[in-house]
């Protein structure tokens, strides 16, 4: 070995050691050795659908996550996951997920027999997983987007909800949101339901002409109000049968919707593919599709134009990252479903900032004062959400407020 090469190697090593030392001093290169001490979840009262979970460690560091749309997931966390994961290194997120998804856990049957394709068990995993990412970011002193490969965009476009034309124009003026979603049931539509042959039937509906006309009239009025170029979507909440969905989409084609969402339940990829193949309106779904295994047939059958995974129940932040990567190979954009508090929404934004095939991020509760009062303030900037540069999610729960709204019988976070 030449002397110059040898000395150069020493110099390079010294430079690296200095860099590593400085990084560790900042908490960005070496995490403390941690063990999970306890995991605790709470359910909120007053009809709030959102649940929160916190992972506690032996060193006092914690991480917080959010989950929803479930019955019993908080019980699973408090009575199964907490004891099963005690003593584990919380930074081994993939290993913990593997244990919860495939392996045999302490005092529980093999997970494959109880998890199913979705539901409370998977929702519980999603909430805990988000909390683990929050904890990991805090442990290493970096925001979640750094841990997931780094950003491809510095800000995330956001779409909101509107009830009607006046509501839409007001929201756009106040927020500069990049899109608006209408819902057939966002405002009272009992009158439309009563026009059907079965007035009490609100799902698996076969639309008649008056009902169809009501929906088209709503879209037409808002399109006229917001102009021809604005992103406008329609939420159907799985209410129709296949033929009604096809006929409705045909009538909506002139209004150039960005998508029609869940015109039918997402239980049959072939039926969804049939709708998409017979209309020029893009079809979206995903809030009720779970994990990359659930999305696989919809992508293979080209059944959806846009997918909408919900990170609070589809398996978590990393699972959504994997779903997006799979969708990218089919050139399908991702518009994550979002009905979370600002805490969960900011977690979504971290993931949205790192996936190349993002379309827009939903923020259902942007103006909901009850939801926004639960956390530190988060605001859009000209219709965009900027992921926090603080460690972890970067948004903290206001524990005293959450405690006031926690249902009796749960230990406060």
Description:
The chain has 413 residues and is α/β, with parallel strands linked by helices. It contains 15 helices and eleven strands. It has helices spanning 3-25, 73-85, 93-101, 120-140, 144-147, 165-175, 190-194, 209-226, 242-252, 269-277, 291-300, 317-328, 342-352, 369-372, 399-405, and strands at residues 36-43, 51-57, 62-67, 156-162, 179-183, 231-235, 259-261, 283-285, 306-307, 361-362, 384-385. The strands form two sheets. Strands 4, 5, 6, 7, 8, 9, 10 and 11 form an eight-stranded mixed β-sheet that branches. The N and C termini lie far apart (60 Å).
* Spatial shape: globular
What is the makeup of the main sheet? 8 strands, mixed
Beta-strand level of the residues, as a percent range?
A: 5-15%
Number of helices: 15
Measured distance between first and last alpha carbons: 60 Å
Order of helices and strands: HEEEHHHHEHEHHEHEHEHEHHEHEH
Number of strands: 11
Q: Average pLDDT across residues?
A: 91
Helix content: 40-55%
Q: Calculate Rg over CA atoms.
A: 23 Å
Low-confidence stretches: 1-10
Structural class: alpha/beta
Could you list some keywords that capture this structure?
413 residues; alpha/beta; eight-stranded mixed sheet; three-stranded antiparallel sheet; 15 helices; 11 strands; 41% helix; 12% strand; globular
